[in-house]
From TrEMBL:
Protein's recorded name: NADH-quinone oxidoreductase subunit I
Keyword Ligase: no
Organism superkingdom: Bacteria
Cofactors that this protein relies on: [4Fe-4S] cluster
Enzyme Commission no: 7.1.1.-
Gene3D superfamilies on file: 3.30.70.3270
The species this protein was found in: Sporichthya brevicatena
Catalytic activity entry: a quinone + NADH + 5 H(+)(in) = a quinol + NAD(+) + 4 H(+)(out)
Amino acid sequence: MPKLTDALAGFAVTFGAMFRKKTTEFYPEQVKGKEGGPRISPRFHGRHQLNRHPDGLEKCVGCELCAWACPADAIYVEGADNDDLAGERFSPGERYGRVYQINYLRCIFCGLCIEACPTRALTMTHEFELADSSRENLIFTKAELLAPLLENMVEAPHPMYPGTTEQDYYAGKVTGADPSLFRPREEGSAQ
């Protein structure tokens, strides 16, 4: 039998909510995580990013664990072997992700792919504005997912830092690209 006090407790919650400050987000004038916009949660799951080592080599070793962990079947990975003789080294390991695609029409942003990645190659950013009028544009390729090159990085493929092993990369002993990989600056060029 319902008690009168239970009903009064329910009305008290409703009455208290009537006087709380309303939360209104003024999107797209104020975008979360950007200047002037509301703060974004540090653990927010946004667009994926394929990370690089400090010298520019890719962290992805093409193991396909992210694709296996994805419950929505949104990730497609094709691994390939690094070939030092042909000058085709993209990651410090034996293999790299030759083809990497994430289909954002399927992705549910659960983060299971991030947890499955053994090299921390895949992380999620705070970027959430992914809407597009074309379905093809929502299948992000490796070139779109790769982290931008920072200072002291050189675009892969290139050899590993001289005198280092794959374990040195994961131990954080490599802090930048081999200086011999940087092209000498030409007169009048922007780089």
